[in-house]
Amino acid sequence: MTGIKIVPNAVLLWLKPATKTKDSVLKYSSTLTSNLTFSSGPASFRTLVHLCYRNAPSGFVANCSSHIQRSASFTHDAAQTFSPIPRRTVTAMSRAKVRGQTSIHRWYCPYKDWDRPLYCPGPLLVVQQRHIVSKSAHISDDDDENLPLSRNVGMFFDKAAALLVHKVVEDFKSLPQKHRSLDEEMKLIQGTIAVIKPCAFIISLSFPIRRDNGTLEVVRAYRAQHKQHRLPSKGGIRFSAHVDYDEVTALAALMTYKCALVNAPFGGAKAGVQIDPKKYSEGELERITRRLTIELSKKGFIHPGIDVPAPDMGTGEREMCWIADTYANIVGFSDINARACVTGKPVSQGGINGRTSATGKGVFVGIKYFLTDKACMDVIGLKPGFKDKTFIVQGFGNVGFHAARYLVEAGAKCIGVAEMDANLYNKDGIDPVALDEYRRQSGCLAGFPAAQPYQGENILCEKCDILVAAACERVITKKISQKIQAKIIAEGANGPVTPGADKVLMEKKVLVIPDLFINAGGVTVSYFEWLKNLNHVSYGRLTSKFERDSNLHIIESVEKSINKWLDSDRAKGLNLKPDPKVKDKYLGYASEKDIVHAGLEHTMERAAEVIMDTARTYNLGLDIRTAAYLVSIEKIYNFYREAGVSSVI
Length: 649
Fold this sequence. Notes:
CATH class of the largest domain: Alpha Beta
Oligomer: single chain
Subcellular location: Mitochondrion
Main location: mitochondrion
Organism: Elysia marginata
EC number: 1.4.1.3
Number of strands: 20
């Protein structure tokens, strides 16, 4: 072995002087290993252990496999073959981090020549943790860059839950007649809140698929059902190489709160498949998706009345179509509602018009509500309305593109776009439609002729009025938030702002429109699609003509009434004609997309009104996130109290 594969989670531990035992076995023990705490999960973790010896001629390393269960000793056979290790390798490993450790003992190399072999002053144990099931509980809340998403969501939940508990207790004290003592009521309140927070069910799947080159590959996937107090559970399926247990459970919890906020009668769920979809062919992705559907159905994690997935990062209409087809033909062939097992399908397969742009449309509607609230704009120092407003969008996917398109149509100017392959900037404005067309033709954003590559440190910190964070989780940390110049941040993605950053932004009087509200457009329209599949009829089919004829009759009636009260000369030639815009909107046939978008806007506006009323009731100021969590948690809490905690999950 001439080198070690470096992974970011490595730790160096000094060992005590060696003692030689029988059979030429060198035994090293160290109290430092007892300070190493691995993340929760299985009792043991697969590791690679490396030993460097002082008496070796040029700093040799031994490699062997072992299972470490917080042990305080390590045994190695001295007869193994050794090979040199570059000093830069050990130095790099010494500066790496392990999630979950309570102390790091670093090795600093005194030599200037980084290519010389390392002479260790004593035995050195290098432990590389190869598999982490969940994030460590030992990470400080201040380290928000590495804080697990579940901890972020939990911190936001706890803050709102504490306010709700205080309110419920005060309401109980004011009751004229009490059926239980205050202590009993407190236990019931706190117990109910404790039931809401954790994830109820999660399944971990491993299944093989055959690649195009004939090799077999094992795919890892998760599906979490956070709550089933209302059925079915609802949440997307994401394909990402970085998805894990923690992320899936956190996103499932967000779905529960999101559904409660917009009055969608679902519990929260989320699924993740640990693959990079860009590295698989279409045929391979189809095999993965169809096999995933079968495995989920075996465990009861997909059904029109139990668990209904939807698109998410790395998936779209194509994957949802495969899921619906697999379920309908293999599992639900005798179920007339089988196509309702998933939403986000193509319209030809039972989907709904307006679903593709739904989340982006919801982001726009949410921004519009707050941007037209004069009292709110006075606090952050902006004039109401979209006129002369500039914005930057991070993540030019489905959500970011449609949000940018609607914002530009309303009068705002897009001055920046941040993506993985390019950061674009143009103070005179970027046309989202032209940029999307360029991406479709070239496959990337880099090289777009109507904008320049951003030359600054971080485009998110560039001066603008609105920042649409529609990429991924934990992108706006406490450190970055101190440089943010935007007045409004819309969380188009799930969890882009960390708790530490959220606090800093509130102190700077930046309005953060939270994820569980602003990106709820997707699940709202998914609810409409689910209802369409259960009703087996498209929206507007039964009512559009009737409503059009009714509006025409109203105009004719008004015209006749005016003619009746006017003399014949003045009434001659009178012909009431509606404005062209009114005619197109109300005297034409309402399309399914018109009805869907109207329902989406109504849902988002009602939710925003309730959030603002709650913020005023609790005197929360710009803390819209806590107000949104309060609304959601209170709805779920009331459901449990009325239904009985033990009867629901």
